[in-house]
Write a structure and sequence with these properties.
Length: 148
């Protein structure tokens, strides 16, 4: 899948959290009719579901709040009001867990299948985050995306 205009890197952070901003982008792009169909089917599931579960917010309510407007930080603050503020340790564990999905876990087999299907066997892909980055035309290994 080529880079989607307006859909930020999976590694980008809002506040202390990876992925959160990308979930916001998917909701906004979908509402504007600009999210590719390959992505639409996964809105609210997969990593979106995990992120909402971590924040203890309902995805439908989160989507409604996102579309009501506001900055990323305001929407994250709303999540904290709804589900409680996460500690620095909670966020560190969340980020580490998410950035390592597909590495020696239940997604490892699926990740290897996607790498093969996409012809990325020559890429240094160790996680689903890496795969998504390469799939959208970014190189997280060269940019050390996880360290930013």
């Amino acid at each position: 899948m080529p880079n989607v205009p307006g859909l930020r890197s999976i590694y980008n952070r809002v506040g202390r959290l990876v992925y959160f901003g990308r979930m916001l982008d998917k909701i906004r792009l979908n509402a504007a009719g600009q999210l590719p169909s390959d992505y639409v089917a996964n809105v609210g599931s997969g990593f979106d579901d995990r992120c909402c579960h971590f924040l203890k917010v309902d995805h439908a309510a989160f989507q409604k709040r996102t579309l009501a407007g506001g900055t990323d930080e305001e929407i994250l603050a709303w999540c904290h009001e709804q589900g409680g503020v996460r500690s620095d340790m909670d966020c560190e564990v969340w980020n580490g867990f998410m950035m390592k999905r597909g590495w020696r876990d239940t997604l490892a087999e699926r990740l290897q299948l996607r790498i093969k299907e996409s012809g990325f066997e020559d890429k240094r892909i160790e996680t689903m985050f890496d795969y998504i980055e390469f799939d959208e035309g970014r190189d997280p290994v060269t940019s050390r995306a996880w360290a930013q």
